[in-house]
Write a structure and sequence with these properties.
Blueprint: E1 8-15, E2 20-31, H1 48-58, H2 64-70, H3 74-88, H4 90-141, H5 149-153, H6 157-175
Helix pairs in contact: 3-4, 4-6
Length: 176
């Protein structure tokens, strides 16, 4: 009738009717520590979630040597240092979180700049493609030797625009 108790619950924003997840960016993870069945003797071989749950529930009792022995992963050593720093000096913790926020902000700025650069590159490529298409069409209409796309790609957008204007003027003059 009831499902067995579980250690880790993972909640997400989801529509129940259609089973659609709105976003994976917002998740709430709950560790039900009262359901933890790992001991100091078995924690080394436990699952990652069990290891984190055991670490979080016993971190205040562990020495640095014990953390290193029970949890050889770098993430646990870093977490132990952060917990130690929080306990010893709240000001250092505030500085740490400010540095972490600045680092994440910088990463976000770089990602945004990369996305903007890609978008601008795509726009520039589209503009260049349209101009090259106009040049080739006008050359064909004027029965001039038709350039290949490779011959046009070494020209700047301004040079391509000037060439389009010249060919349009020549086309209009020939029609008059």
């Amino acid at each position: 009738m009831f499902s067995p108790p579980v250690l880790h619950l993972d909640f997400r924003m989801r529509d129940n009717l259609h089973s659609l997840t709105l976003t994976d960016d917002l998740q709430i993870h709950l560790l039900q520590l009262n359901h933890l069945q790992v001991t100091a003797e078995t924690v080394y071989d436990a699952s990652p979630v069990e290891r984190w749950a055991w670490f979080l529930s016993h971190a205040d009792e562990l020495t640095s040597d014990q953390v290193a022995r029970l949890f050889p992963d770098q993430e646990f050593a870093e977490a132990a240092e952060v917990l130690k720093m929080i306990a010893q000096n709240p000001q250092q913790y505030l500085e740490y979180t400010a540095r972490l926020k600045a680092q994440r902000d910088e990463e976000a700025r770089i990602l945004y700049a990369q996305q903007q650069g890609r978008a601008e590159g795509i726009d520039l490529g589209i503009s260049q493609g349209v101009l090259i298409g106009q040049i080739i069409l006008l050359q064909r209409l004027l029965q001039l030797p038709t350039w290949t796309e490779q011959q046009c790609t070494h020209l700047s957008i301004d040079e391509l625009q000037q060439l389009v204007v010249q060919l349009q003027q020549q086309f209009n003059a020939d029609r008059s």
